[in-house]
């Protein structure tokens, strides 16, 4: 049963594409007999001919990707855009690093683990960018035996 013409007429009436026209399976004989726009309008009104809803884009994959990103995945070199400095500017890196070093040195001073003279010297070295990280600072303190009592943290 070829209902191409009926589909085209129905699409024209409902102002949709022919792919969105849906025929009721039980009323196919009535639809086949409908050859004018008036016949088709009455079938649309009765509900024998209707339009399919828009096909929307599924968010399942998007949600899955979001979940993976929350775990820390999908952050490899293929995802990164911009230079290292564009992603985290050098000043911010410096501020984070110097705060960690100063906090650590302050803790040592408060616990009386280093002398004031050594503390001042280490603070100035930190300010000058001598230490790469907190680990480097600890290594330096141990190598130069600047701790008064006990081990470092």
Q: What tags apply to this protein structure?
A:
4% strand; mainly alpha; two-stranded antiparallel sheet; 153 residues; 50s Ribosomal Protein L19e, Chain O, domain 1; Non-ribosomal Peptide Synthetase Peptidyl Carrier Protein, Chain A; rod-shaped
How would you characterize this protein structure?
The chain has 153 residues and is mainly alpha-helical. Among the domains are: 4-51, Orthogonal Bundle (50s Ribosomal Protein L19e, Chain O, domain 1); 89-143, Non-ribosomal Peptide Synthetase Peptidyl Carrier Protein, Chain A (Orthogonal Bundle). It is 56% helix and 4% strand. The protein is built from eight helices and two strands, in the order H-E-H-H-E-H-H-H-H-H. It has a two-stranded antiparallel sheet. Helix 6 runs antiparallel to helix 7. The radius of gyration is 37 Å and the shape is rod-shaped. The mean pLDDT is 93.
In short:
The chain is mainly alpha-helical. 56% of the residues lie in helices and 4% in strands. A two-stranded antiparallel sheet has the order 1-2.
């Amino acid at each position: 049963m070829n209902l191409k013409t009926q589909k085209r007429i129905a699409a024209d009436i409902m102002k949709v594409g022919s792919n969105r026209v849906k025929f009721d399976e039980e009323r196919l004989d009535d639809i086949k007999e409908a050859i004018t726009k008036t016949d088709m309008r009455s079938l649309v009104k009765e509900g024998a001919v209707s339009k399919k809803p828009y096909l929307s884009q599924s968010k399942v994959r998007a949600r899955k990707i979001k979940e993976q990103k929350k775990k820390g995945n999908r952050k490899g070199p293929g995802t990164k855009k911009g230079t290292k400095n564009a992603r985290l500017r050098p000043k911010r890196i410096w501020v984070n690093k110097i705060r960690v070093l100063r906090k650590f040195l302050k803790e040592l001073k408060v616990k009386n683990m280093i002398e004031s003279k050594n503390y001042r010297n280490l603070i100035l070295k930190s300010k000058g960018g001598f230490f790469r990280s907190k680990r480097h600072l600890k290594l330096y303190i141990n190598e130069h035996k600047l701790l008064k009592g006990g081990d470092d943290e």
